[in-house]
Amino acid sequence: MRSASARSATILSLCKGGKRGRRGQSELHITAVRSTPTPHRNRPIRPHTHSGLHFPRALSGDRHARGSRAMMAGRAHNHSNRLRRLIPRALFLVFAVHAVSFALYLLLQSHHPSPNPTQRTPVRDEARVPSSQKPWPHLPSFLPWVPGPTPPPHSCEAYFGNGFSRRVDVLPAGGGGWFRCHHSETLSSSICEGARVRLDPALITMSRGGELLEQVMGRAEEEELPKYEPGALQVEGAAAGRTTPLVDAGFLDAYVNTGGIAMHTMRALLESARVVPPGELHCSQWVEEPTLLVTRFEYANLFHTITDWYSAYVSSRVTNLPSRPNVLFVDGHCKAQLEQTWESLFSSVTYAKNFSGPVCFRHAILSPLGYETALFKGLSESFSCEGASAQSLREKPDYGKTSRLSEFGEMIVASFDLLQDDIMSTKKLNGLNVLFVRREDYLAHPRHSGKVESRLSNEPEVYDAIDKWAKGQKCKINVVNGLFAHMTMKEQLRAILEASVVIGAHGAGLTHLVSATPDTKVLEIISSMYRRPHFALISHWKALEYHAINLPGSYARITDVISELSNILKGLGC
């Protein structure tokens, strides 16, 4: 057996950290051999070679033995002292290495969640931060949405207001998430909402979205619309023992019917939805504030975008949100000019594919498609509804009248800080503004040529003739050239608000009438190829005075246009 001094010398060599071999073995044999005490006297003396030199293995004589023992005792004492100093340092070094390694592990885990979907990790409620959501503005035409009496089906208020009166609890609240839908018999549509909801972008097939238009020219529309795999949407259920579908086909047919829409993306999202047990909702990020999930189709067209805005606004009011929600685009469209208004109307806007992993929401609301709003359904369904002031409806409620479209128009105006400008009292001080809404070429979307189809073949001549005629009138008439494609949204809205008369050929730009003041007059020039009721209906639902010139083709006689405009202006005292 080796002496204590030999063992101490060997340990000291280990603490010094000798070189590591390729297989992880410490190459410490040289130091250990040099520390070996005198061998047994019957063992033959053998030289040990080191760096070409020979060292005797033993010394002869008692004197040499005593000297050797004294020397080794001194060395052992020194080794022991050094050992006492080095061991705490070595332990501290080991602790530091482990601490740094653990910190790096946690950091990497926070950025790269486990790809194993079966790994059970408890869901922690992160600390809530103060809400950064925008407050609702004060709207003169606002009437309460909830609570309130349920409007009769197919009444004016049921179309434009809170006709979503049937509440269906899909997943009752009780310790985990919940999910419910508010159904409108009148619109055959539902607004659905839930708590502890997860959306997984990896299970949605579509383009990324939010790109610059020039980068995606030629991209097919099918690439931009979402296709869902099972589990793309998940809701945590307190009583769920296993993963199950959130709704069945019978529920979808009753409450999220396609209604003739070829690709009903909200229905498809609910078909993909699954209920998962507590602890199985794996998220890379939590969104604390209420968020609207919106899928757009004709996102570059003002009329269809306003139907999407209206649907999102109604969804926010029906679910009684305390402030303006975030908006998540569950589509892959590129950026468009109208996105600026989304950002102004709501608290924030982002695209689903912007998230690198599954994202969870404390409160998510599924906004119906714009095709399911009264603004769109009114084009094909006949229902009795006329506009009225909110004040008159407060004094005498009438389900056959509505001020909801005026309320919504004020919401758009307020989002651009124009509601406080008191335009109503000042719009006539500098004369009467006649806004001519023009159609001009612009690049709208990846499949667009940049050329706008003319609805009025001699539009430049009509505009120039009106401008020249106005300059010869006794009262001051300002003809405004409404080139909306090259104006900011705030400039467009201000032009609408300041207009006493809005004139133009049938086109999406006239949808801005939802924001017009109650005293605005409308003159629409309609070619034979575009006899559609869009703007006559909006004017009627807003209680605006509406006039139309129906053309036999697309060419307008200038004298007819000026004659009709002159009669309108006479009614304004000019």
| Average residue-wise pLDDT | 82
Q: How many helical stretches?
A: 17
Q: Which strands sit side by side, in order, in the main sheet?
A: 3-4-5-17-13-14-15
The termini sit apart by 122 Å
Q: Bin the helical content.
A: 25-40%
How is the biggest beta sheet arranged? Answer: 7 strands, mixed
Strand portion: 15-25%
Shape: globular
Strands, total number: 24
Radius of gyration: 39 Å
Q: Which regions are unreliable across 5 or more consecutive residues at pLDDT < 50?
A: 1-74, 104-129
Structural class: alpha/beta
Notable characteristics:
574 residues; alpha/beta; 6-stranded mixed β-sheet; 17 helices; 24 strands; 33% helix; globular
Please write out the topology:
Elements: H1 4-16, H2 29-34, E1 48-50, E2 53-55, H3 62-111, H4 156-160, E3 166-171, E4 178-184, E5 189-195, E6 197-199, E7 204-205, H5 221-224, E8 227-228, E9 233-236, E10 244-245, H6 249-255, H7 265-272, E11 274-276, E12 285-287, E13 291-294, H8 302-318, E14 326-329, H9 339-345, E15 348-351, E16 359-361, E17 364-366, H10 374-377, E18 386-387, H11 390-395, E19 401-402, H12 404-415, H13 423-426, E20 432-437, H14 459-471, E21 477-482, H15 489-498, E22 501-505, E23 521-526, H16 534-542, E24 545-550, H17 558-570
Parallel strand pairs: 9-11, 12-16, 13-14, 13-17, 14-15, 18-19, 20-21, 20-22, 22-23, 23-24
Antiparallel strand pairs: 1-2, 3-4, 4-5, 5-17, 6-9, 6-16, 7-8, 10-11
Helix pairs in contact: 1-3
